[in-house]
Amino acid sequence: MISLIVNAGEDHKTLSRLLTALVPAAAEGLIREVAVLGALGRSADVADDAGADLYEAGAFAEALERTRGPWVAGLPMAASFAPAWIEILSAHLAREPAEPARLVSARAWPPLPGGPEGWLVPKAQAPSAATAEEDLQRLARRSGGRLRILSRS
Question: What is the predicted pLDDT for the residue at 105?
């Protein structure tokens, strides 16, 4: 099960779209919890209504420490998902040994500069490196694995 960490802001509509898109994965037992960092105004209400854990902006290390899933992931708030993303993600989680991965667009490789990209790391590998989200992004990039689960839309 995955603990997801998302950086938010004031864009409550984009946050709502992301949290709604995660519902099927939560129903499948794939997403355990969502930590939302830096939600302001109506975004904080959206995150709270969705049952997400709220943290101050910049509280990445605290959010990571409190996650309970064996995997932790980060997504850009504007992420949208490709078809079969749940199956692709589930298959990766079942692999042994557990390996970090970049979460990239399903349509093209390499991803366009500035395009949506996320990361997925076994939590057991995270504490040694992670004081900031960039630490886990680097860990996922070094792993070389790519899961094409995001959509360009």
Answer: 83
